[in-house]
Design a protein that fits this description.
- The complex is a heterodimer of chains A (144) and B (147).
- By secondary structure, chain A is an alpha+beta fold.
- Chain A contains 8 helices and 4 strands, in the order H-H-H-E-H-E-H-E-E-H-H-H.
- The longest helix of chain A is centred in the N-terminal third of the chain and has 13 residues.
- Chain B has 147 residues and is an alpha+beta fold.
- Chain B has a 3-stranded mixed sheet.
- In chain B, helix 2 crosses helix 3.
- The radius of gyration of chain B is 17 Å and the shape is globular.
- Classes of the chains: A alpha+beta (144), B alpha+beta (147).
- Chains A and B meet through helix 4, strand 4 and helix 6 of A and helix 4 and strand 3 of B.
- Chain B: It comes from Littorina saxatilis.
- Chain B: This is BolA-like protein 1.
- Chain B: Pfam families: BolA.
- Chain B: Belongs to the BolA/IbaG family.
């Protein structure tokens, strides 16, 4: 099954419809299409490669940080598979580099920002806003 | 109370002094390089133009530009992957994402002409003073650099 199909069947019905509309009404680099990918999702990562096989050190770092917080089932978009998305996401966020992380439909930043937020604890708060409880909190409680 | 105030002002003074020292250091290093600037333009056109633009835009007290291209799957001598460390008053009161945007915007032309990856450390002089002032290496390449 192609990339769009996989994405569509994974999400709930609303996302499916949104993607279906986006699929047949516009290109994958369009604002509407990317809106459909990021809106209503807790965490979406635009990256090179896949979470299991990242093709870039910065993309890999983002995946590892998320896993460190116990976030395994996040949505990811492999920009190497779709040149339109790769260009489109850069225009969408006005951000020139990959990876790019979205939480709750909002653009969070790239690898450096993710790393900083991880180090200063803000990432736990951002995850909380997206309805995800960081695994680091569990670990801290178990210690107490 | 008076003690607290004096300790704060001492800190401020110290950071002002440090900032000043860094400015001087930066000014000196750019002077010392000016004799070979013509050469650098030819050998490292990307690094040279990044340095010039960032220095003009942010008047940084610290400006480090590290070419990390050798860590990636690109030809020897490439100027594609960089890390920049910028310490500037211009970042005072500016959120991290916005700091990165400012830097990216200054380097818009470079992104259009071969700059591929840019790791950014953007701090205010006070943040820099409090930090270890050491910047770690970027994560290792996973083979997709040229893609």
């Amino acid at each position: 099954m192609n990339f769009v199909g996989r994405q569509a069947f994974r999400g709930p019905g609303l996302t499916f419809c949104r993607l279906l509309v986006a699929r047949y009404s516009s290109k994958t680099g369009s604002k509407e299409y990317i809106d459909g990918l990021v809106k209503g999702k807790p965490v979406v990562v635009f990256m090179k490669g896949t979470p299991d096989q990242p093709r870039c050190g910065f993309s890999n770092a983002v995946v590892q940080i998320l896993r460190f917080h116990g976030v395994e089932n996040f949505d990811s978009v492999n920009v190497l598979e779709d040149e339109d998305v790769r260009q489109g996401i850069k225009e969408y966020t006005e951000w020139p580099t990959i990876p790019q992380i979205f939480m709750n439909g909002e653009f969070l930043g790239g690898c450096d920002i993710m790393m900083d937020m991880h180090k200063n604890g803000e990432l736990i708060e951002e995850l909380k806003k997206a309805g995800i409880r960081s695994a680091l909190l569990e670990k801290a409680e178990n210690k107490d | 109370m008076a003690k607290a105030v004096s300790s704060i002002s001492a800190k401020l003074l110290r950071s002002a002094f440090t900032a000043n020292r860094f400015t001087t250091a930066y000014a000196q290093s750019s002077t010392s390089q000016s004799s070979s600037a013509g050469m650098a333009d030819i050998v490292k056109p990307m690094e040279t133009s990044m340095k010039k633009k960032l220095a003009e835009a942010f008047k940084p007290s610290v400006l480090q530009i590290v070419n990390e291209s050798y860590m990636h799957n690109v030809p020897k001598g490439s100027e594609t992957h960089f890390k920049v460390v910028i310490v500037s008053d211009a970042f005072e009161g500016v959120q991290l994402v916005q700091r990165h945007r400012k830097v990216n915007n200054v380097l818009e032309e470079e992104f259009g002409s071969g700059l591929h990856a840019l790791s950014i450390v953007a701090k205010t002089p006070i943040q820099w003073e409090k930090s270890t002032q050491e910047v770690g290496q970027s994560p290792p390449c996973r083979g997709g650099a040229g893609l």
